[in-house]
Amino acid sequence: MQEIFSQSKAWPFVEARNLLEKRLKNKVPEKGYVLFETGYGPSGLPHIGTFAEVARTTMIRNAFQKIAPEIPTKLFCFSDDMDGLRKVPDNVPNKEMLEKYLEKPLTEVPDPFGTHESFGHHNNARLKAFLDSFGFEYEFKSSTDYYTAGVFDETLLKILQNYDDVINVILPTLGEERRATYSPFLPICPKTRKVLQVSVIERNVDAGTIVYENEDGEKVETLVTGGNVKLQWKCDWAMRWKALDVDYEMSGKDLMDSVKLSSRICRILGTQPPQGITYELFLDEKGEKISKSKGNGLAVEDWLKYAPQESLSLFMYNKPKTAKKLYFDMIPRAIDEYLAHLRGFEKQDEKAKLANPAWHIHNGNVPKPEEELSINIILNLASVCHSDDPAVIWHYISRYAEGATPENNPFLDSLVKYAIVYYKDFVLPAKNYRKATADEIKALKDLKTELEALDEKATADDIQNKVYLVGKNHECFASLKDWFKALYQIFLGQDMGPRMGSFIALYGRQETLKLVDKAIAGEDLS
Fold first, then answer.
1. Does residue 195 contact residue 144 with C-beta atoms inside 8 Å?
2. How confident is the model at residue 235 (pLDDT cuts 50, 70, 90)?
């Protein structure tokens, strides 16, 4: 089995294998474990990008543990909570109060929600609750704690020793005005507690201090250790990699240049930067980059209102280096794709299982599938039943799958509830039923005849074959696609729909025949 893990071409195994062979040289690091890291800026609340990064990193970590079970691993979720509050977020209460604390460390800004000792602590708690809700295994780390406890002191002094080399990495990337005042060190003013972006006038490497001019013109000497300064973020990132000996950290395409700069600084500090992949960003339905400020994104809570977590994990697993559209229409497709992977898993050999996304979503502990119903079938059942009552949907499911109940099919029961919410919010408002044309009525009469003639034990495939046959026998349809589109528009009020054989088997032939009769009679089916 170990050999199969080591040969798998699934991208988490490829990343894990590269980490083991290229960075670690197949050895346990001196610190005694392999460190995976993800970073978080707590000036805002956790979002779908946070989930994506932790989920993908966890998949790689899980793969690594299979390839090299003898090497311990850790995942640090690191919060940059010593950063200054740059602006007041739009989605918090007591905004006027926060205005007085701009530029102060987030862990020294009062909590506008009134539930924690600071705004930073509040958002850190939200991050931990967010990650815990998905069952991620991680260790939370605070920038404030690490700076003030002296964990970073040795590396901060090393940056002071290599000050010119470090700033010469950054200066060419800045405009003329910013170059004149740039320093990697951001002193925290002892009077105002603001994180100051000021130039360094003097440096004393032996004493471990810098001198700067504060806002009122006074020259101030301060230690670079003990939490008296923090670093500009590109330097901060490199410092953290060095101080913690981070082995793996992925990042988005928008940070490619920052990764290059931080990596150069990391090498100046005498160590190799961590390995990692550059993942692509999410796009909205128009193909534009998702932006929190634009509000064109899809939040985690939005997705989980309509779908289980497993479907979101699948979306994150698929092609992380490819830009993907992320909008509401993607959700049913992701659910059905997850169900397809789940149902195919048991039939695969061990090698194929490792390439199945379900293995990575469940870390090899893949649950057994329940009844083979797609979310789209359930959505269309809700549509034709005109009901948002789960009991009504289950009436049809139990008849289709004898013995199936919400109790013995809990995942399917959750899908029924998700489907009803999605149907009410997205499908129902867009419905546009039409009546059948004269030619279509002739086809519907033939469909009725074929359905009536079927044996009581006819399968969904048998029904589908008859539907195909009717469509082929009527020249008014240029293709079978046009025939099915007509059925969807007449019966469901939409241009696309389910596999008709499966849908009729689930809904019931007698109920379907009633719909056909109404359509033939020209009745409104909405």
1. no
2. very high
- Six token digits for residue 62: 């899980």
Q: What is the pLDDT of residue 314?
A: 97
Among the listed residues 330, 427, 445, 442, the one whose alpha carbon sits nearest the alpha carbon of residue 385: 427
CA distances from 3 to 6, 67, 136, 509 (A): 5, 8, 27, 51
DSSP per-residue letters across 40-83: E-TTS---HHHHHHHHHHHHHHHHHHHH-TTS-EEEEEEE-TTS
- Angstrom distances, CA of residue 474 to CA of 239, 296, 331, 407, 479: 72, 45, 35, 45, 10
Task: Please report the pLDDT score of residue 206 as a whole number.
Answer: 97
**Among candidate residues 170, 280, 149, the one with its CA nearest the CA of residue 233:** 170
Is the separation of the CB atoms in 137 and 128 below 8 Å? no
The count of other CB atoms within 10 Å of the CB of residue 83 is: 22
Mean pLDDT, the chain, whole residue set: 93
- Cβ neighbors of 350 (< 8 A, separation 6 or more) are 1, 4
Structure-block tokens of residue 255: 């940070």
Separation of alpha carbons 421 and 168, rounded Å: 55
pLDDT in tens, 198-214: 999 999 999 999 999 98
Interhelix angle 500-507/390-400, nearest 10 degrees: 100
Q: Please tell me the predicted confidence (pLDDT) of residue 33.
A: 98
Q: Report pLDDT for 152.
A: 98
**What angle separates helix 509-520 from helix 438-453, to the nearest 10 degrees?**
160
As a whole number, mean pLDDT of residues 329-352 equals 95
Rounded CA-CA distance 190/170 in Å is 27
